[in-house]
Amino acid sequence: MNLILAHDHSDFDAVASMLGAWKLNPAWTPVLGRSLNRNVSDFLTLHLDMLPFVRDEELPPGTAAERVMLVDTQAVPSLKGVDTESISEVTILDHHARRDDLPEGWQVELDTTGACATILVERMVEQGLSLSWVEATLLLLGIHEDTGSLVYAGTTVRDVRAAAWLLEQGANLDTLAHFLDHPLTERQRELYRRLLEGCDFLDVHAFQIVIAQAEMDDYVDDVSSLAHNLRDLYDPAALVLTVAMSGHVQLVARSGTDAIDVGHLMGHFDGGGHARAAAAFVDDEPLEAVIARLKELLPQHVRPAVTVSDWMSRGKIRALSPSARVHEAADLMRRWGHEGFPVVDEGNVVGVLTRRDVDRALQHDLGNAPVTEFMHKGNIVVTPDDPIPHVQRVMLENNIGQVPVVAPDSNEIIGIITRTDLLKRLGAPPPDNRASDLMRLLEEALPAPTLALVRRVAEEAAAQGYGVYLVGGIVRDLLLGSPIKDLDIVIEGSAIPVAKQLARTLGGRVVAHDRFGTAKWLLRDPGHPPRDALLEASDLPDTIDLITARTEFYERPTALPQVEHASIKQDLHRRDFTINTLALALSPGGEGHLLDFYGGEADLKRGIIRVLHNLSFVEDPTRILRAVRFEQRFGFTLEPRTAELLNSSLDLLQQVSPDRLRHELYATLAEPHSERVLARLDELAILDILMPGVRWTDSDAQRFQRLRDADLAAPEHLLAALVWNPQADISRIDRIADRLGLSNDWRTRLHALYAVRAQRDTLTDPALRNSDLHRLLRQRDPSALHLLATLTEDEALRAALRRYLDDLLPRALAVTGDDLRATGLPPGPAYAAILNTIHAAML
């Protein structure tokens, strides 16, 4: 006989999974175990006639189980009257971690979902099966019970999709609510009271853990439901119920954090389950001994996966003195965009002032009051080693959104952690093996010596107490699978001393810029030869730029920013678009960790260009050109609000200096597909703002292609192609040259194009002799003539120019002044006339 089985003390997920397995294998028999949770039993009492289950006592005595499918469990339960010795094949379908003691030959299918029923629902959807309302409701009960109605941390998108499909199949929500919120029986209420009286509150590695113990004279079913009640009451990081009854101790464990894996903890008691929910039964051991063993094991299973040091922002943290006035704090908040400041007196944090406090004071015209009257008072701090739940408690207890981080030995403020840090990270998907995957991508993208050098930078920075990150374009391109162009290395601390120590140790020379905190490390400086074999590698770059993490403040629109040292988070916040705000940690111990405070990776996946804040284009209008450049380079689209902000800021481009406009325009022309960018700039009415009177046309595209084919696609040549128009007034060259701050050489070259174009009829006359063509063009810059020969659509003019450049210009006259002197002719003006005559005759 082929049987579908689940674990003893079956809950809704186990029974629902049996139903799902039967729907997929209707020739098999789903057998209910010896004991069911009370709410499951009550449900089946009402609906069993509409479901395929049989009880083990209903099977014929001596039934031989030949093939067994186990769902939501990895152990064969004991069944009344069933011969389990005859089992020849076992298949497991489960969502728990694999047990270590599974026999060889068992077929094991494990998946990561919040509920086992979800896996079966997905397979039913694939096969196009339909369900009755009772079947859909039972399966939905299984998913909701195991995922806490889709709010437990282990819930996946797959669980939600499965639940939605079950609703479409007719699952009844009233039935769901009735059986999930089942009232406690009198015996459960008595056990609950005893557990409350027997609660022991432990502090293990800064996590609060509750062990609740009780003894009952006889068996009480569905103890797990009491765990939910106690968790709701105390909200601990983890909870373990220990109940002695009917000759054994039952343990029910729940965890609210990845730092505590109760599944592994229950494994020590021959139990198991999820990292967040598990259980065990212990026979022949007193309750006191079980609790003692539990307390001894807990410290081994409480390991903070994440501490403050992983998520904090480091660097210079601005603080207020107690004598500072509220209006001063308000000015600083507006200037730097901070939501709060620690208040420090003689090196100790005495309070935290939030924006909400400042706004409240200003509403009452109390801007001149000292900040101490409105701050949250106390030494409100955390240390780098504190776990994240501790930070959450500090924020909740003090009703603040940012907490200073202090060094445990000196009480010096070394960083800050904010509510935004928590929300961004806690809402992110689990990292899995992401760090190692990203480092593997980096290893594939960079030459081995370059990667080794980058790691030496990280080691030196760590030795000086600083964090190191690859930021911006390199991380973006790494995730997109694009070639890596530039190494942007940011030091959270101070880049210059790191660079100088590297030069002292490895060789090379450092050029430092104190104002910006940047250091250019020249690896191949002749006066400073390598001191380490690493710098002798041939495929290293010539220089490495090390940049101190900094923030910027704009006094007025379009002005250059003021710069101050800051945290990596603040450094990323000053960047142009979310896709450029990604950072990859390089510090030893945290290598490969991706920082994504502003949703950059999600926008990369969605193909969106998004600014970080509404004033982004106002502060720096050149970002308008970069937005279009990135949009066309990656085939992305402007996020609607970003497009709206861009359009409303176009007039500000008029105020940007010529040098900055020229720099951005040349960067555009250096794009491999600059034609697409220029067409889009014209579509958005930006091109005319940059170069009045210039519109993008098909003829421009053709000229660009001819320049590329002729290997003349340097930005200055492409710009000439864009500006040059035989029908336009030559004066527009000067207008555009003034607007973009173009050099006199560039201006002269463009004027020459028009001047030569004006000689077209003469230059293309079939009767024109070679010597006359040479005489007309010999005073012109050959590079300008090459450019005109490529740009012009006049075939006759192009032929004349090519005739001069390719045939006449390379011809060298064999006769020299030495030959004339050898004839006895005295040197003088006649030499030039004679040589010109000979040259003309040769041509």
Features:
843 residues, single chain, seven-stranded mixed β-sheet, six-stranded parallel β-sheet, elongated, alpha/beta
Explain what the structure shows:
By secondary structure, the chain is of the alpha/beta class. Helix content is 44%, strand content 16%. The protein contains 37 helices and 31 strands. The strands form eight sheets. A seven-stranded mixed beta sheet has the order 23-24-25-22-21-28-29. A six-stranded parallel beta sheet has the order 3-2-1-5-7-8. A six-stranded mixed beta sheet has the order 9-10-11-12-14-13, sandwiched between helices. Helix 12 (326-336) crosses helix 13 (355-363), helix 25 packs across helix 29 (715-723) and helix 34 runs antiparallel to helix 35 (795-808). The termini are far apart.
| Quantity of strands, as a count | 31
What helical percentage do the residues reach? 40-55%
How would you classify the helix and strand content by structural class?
Answer: alpha/beta
Q: In what range is the share of β-strand residues?
A: 15-25%
Summarize this entry quickly.
It is elongated and about 135 Å long. Helix content is 44%, strand content 16%.
Write the layout of secondary structure elements.
Blueprint: E1 2-5, H1 12-24, E2 29-32, H2 38-47, E3 54-55, E4 63-64, E5 67-71, E6 82-83, E7 89-94, E8 107-110, H3 116-126, H4 133-147, H5 157-168, H6 173-180, H7 186-197, E9 199-204, E10 207-215, H8 224-234, E11 238-245, E12 248-255, H9 262-267, E13 272-273, E14 277-283, H10 287-301, H11 308-311, E15 313-314, H12 326-336, E16 340-345, E17 348-354, H13 355-363, E18 376-377, H14 388-398, E19 402-406, E20 413-418, H15 419-426, H16 434-445, H17 448-463, E21 467-471, H18 473-480, E22 489-492, H19 495-506, E23 509-513, E24 518-522, E25 543-548, E26 550-553, E27 562-565, H20 568-573, E28 583-585, E29 594-595, H21 600-606, E30 608-609, H22 616-619, H23 623-634, E31 637-638, H24 640-648, H25 658-669, H26 674-683, H27 687-690, H28 698-709, H29 715-723, H30 731-740, H31 744-758, H32 760-763, H33 770-777, H34 782-791, H35 795-808, H36 817-822, H37 830-842
Parallel strand pairs: 1-2, 1-5, 2-3, 4-6, 5-7, 7-8, 10-11, 22-25, 30-31
Antiparallel strand pairs: 9-10, 11-12, 12-14, 13-14, 15-20, 16-17, 17-18, 19-20, 21-22, 21-28, 23-24, 24-25, 26-27, 28-29
Helix pairs in contact: 1-3, 1-4, 3-4, 3-5, 4-5, 4-6, 12-13, 17-19, 23-26, 25-29, 28-29, 31-34, 34-35
